[in-house]
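Predict the holo structure. Ligand: flavin-adenine dinucleotide.
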Amino acid sequence: MKAFTELERKQYTNVWVIAEVLSGKIQKVTYELIGVARELADSRNSEVWAIILNSQLEEDMESIFIHGANVAMVAGNPVLSGFNDEVEANILKKLIDKYKPEVVLCGATSRGRALIPRVAVMTHSGLTADCTRLSIDVVNGDLLQTRPAFGGNIMATIRCSNYRPQMATVRPRVMRVLEPDYTRKGRVIKEEILSTDVKKLKRIIRIQHDDETDVNLADARIIISGGRGLKGKRGFDLLKRLAEKMEGAAMGASRAAVDAGWVSYSHQVGQTGQTVQTKVYIACGISGQIQHLVGMQSCDLIIAIDQNPDTPMMQIADIAVVGDLFEIIPEIICQIDEYNNQN
Ligand SMILES: Cc1cc2nc3c(=O)[nH]c(=O)nc-3n(C[C@H](O)[C@H](O)[C@H](O)COP(=O)(O)OP(=O)(O)OC[C@H]3O[C@@H](n4cnc5c(N)ncnc54)[C@H](O)[C@@H]3O)c2cc1C
């Protein structure tokens, strides 16, 4: 297919966010994407559209507008209440052909990962997965899509200049949600879905799994993470004791600790683990290789404890504590106990 001419490229405008809806509720990743979409759209004097492929939404659209979207486009049909990637891809292709967005963003969630590559193939668009930063070339509208490459050893910035729209997925908790602005108003566009769009419906089976080894790092306010410096399972028992003393705290880990079998994979933070964005992140004996940093560098306050002051983690930390973990962690536990006894 021939590259688009400048004239063809100019027909594409606005930044779309494909909303993630689960059980009738808009998920937080949608607001995170709207936040970054707002910045991109402002640079291009264009609009942010949230695309909602679900008629079972139980919320009103106000939350979308106050967080930065100009338009909520609802392409509804009761059969869409369960996710079906083939059906949604067909509908999205039709909407893209009709409205011509310049940029389409989607969460790098299991739903987004199933949906968006299909759409990219159908629309001949470039797609960059798992972006950690997005900006836009204000002159020609090229999306600058930054993501870790070559095993996380470099950060690559990718442009897909030849076609429109430009598509990217972004992991949850990488971008920030904008503060709500209650003066913002938006408009709702309803798109009718024809029965031919949904004819390929598969049966959807939902499996809810409730494994006690699962850790909810996403909802934690504080994450206390351990790495190879903890030296074994006993080190993680110590870390667990500390986490239990702090309200809203969960225990994270580096891949080195997970690979060593000291703690389960559900604790892993980083490129091949979870991305977290907590108020406080305490890294204990984690050197801070890029593959770990990409998963936690957006946390508000980073505290690092390490015997080596020169590690990347100690360099990026807001508070860097130099010393032996096996002396420092028991001391913190003692201090918390003393404080609790006095209050
Ligand atoms: C494709 C790919 C994907 C990856 N994905 C991830 C990922 O998702 N998450 C991840 O974490 N890694 C990931 N990695 C691995 C990553 O490159 C590092 O190997 C790993 O993060 C190192 O873990 P660590 O910091 O715990 O160990 P180390 O780098 O060995 O650091 C241990 C630290 O503990 C300190 N220490 C030791 N003893 C003490 C003590 N007594 N007191 C205080 N400090 C002490 C040391 O000074 C050191 O700084 C990935 C790698 C690849 C190639």
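Residues 151-152, 227-229, 254-257, 268, 270-273, 285-287, 289, 291-292, 295, 306-308, 311, 324-326 surround flavin-adenine dinucleotide (CB under 6 Å). The mean pLDDT is 89.
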